Amino acid sequence: MDSLILELTDIKITLASTIFKLLLSLVLGSVVGLERKRKGQSAGIRTFALISMGATLAMIISIYVPQEYMGHTENGDPGRIAAQVLSGIGFLGAGAIIQMKGSVRGLTTAAGIWMVATIGLAVGVGMYVVSVVATLLILFILVQLERIEKRVSLGSESRIIRLKVGAIVVDMEPYRKALARHNVHLSNLYVEYDYEKGVSHLNLIVLVRENTDYIKLCETLRPLNPTQTITLANQVSF
Q: What is the pTM assigned to this prediction?
């Protein structure tokens, strides 16, 4: 048993240590991916597990090549392949970010992808305790800090309220006051006027809290002008 533990924790690449590292990185990546999937993100368990395992395997190869073909690691550069992992992971991170008019989503998931890649590298080099602690810290950031943000009213989210009004709206102050009564901040505004039909298309980009009652908010906005439709969305549209 002791000999197996020594083999798993030894920096020298063996079949047993390689399998153990891949399995550990799979578990750690999956744990973070599970939290992201629970929040409805497209990058979930499989994505994070594959990223973590891929980074681990890259680190193993970085150590294995100079170890096997140059006799010992001092004659090689074990960090060369690993460095390319951190450079290339930006491609996946960029794919996780969704940019829409008025809002950007996926930054936290992109940061998580980058962090999971570094955890995979740490597992590959044999820093098991550090890898587990880093995973726990990621979960603390994603779960507990989010709760703290919401508790101190820092958890505002960007939303777009679309209104089709059967009149040419020239005064936005009533809308600002109505939104303020629901603790909603109007951060930007896009307007399209159809003078021929006498219709205004308003896109109100607002910051709302998680506990905002959208039904009551819409009922407050509706009588301000001859409102035809109200839509809550994540993207500006006319």
A: 0.52
CA distance 114 to 90: 7
Joined together, the tokens standing for residue 127 give: 């820093």
Given a contact cutoff of 8 angstroms between Cβ atoms, the answer to whether 191 and 162 are in contact is no
pLDDT digits (tens, 9 = 90+) for 152-172: 544 567 788 999 999 999 899
16: tokens are: 């047993």
C-alpha neighbours within 13 Å on the C-beta side of residue 189 = 15
pLDDT of the residue at 150: 61
Q: How far apart are CA 46 and CA 31, in angstroms?
A: 10
Instruction: Kindly tell me the burial class for residue 9, based on how many C-beta atoms sit within 10 Å of its own C-beta (0-12, 13-18, 19 or more).
Output: exposed
- What residues pair up with 202 in beta bridges, in sequence order? 163, 191
Instruction: Enumerate the β-bridge partners of residue 232.
Output: 161
Distance of CA 43 to the CA centre of its chain: 8
Distances (CA, A) of 228 to 47, 93, 164: 43, 40, 5
- The residue among 179, 158, 171, 160 whose CA lies nearest residue 230 is 160
- CB-count burial class (<10 Å; 0-12, 13-18, 19+) for 122: buried
- 68: nearest Cα among 4, 15, 126, 123: 15
| Distance in angstroms (rounded) separating the CA atoms of residues 177 and 162 | 17
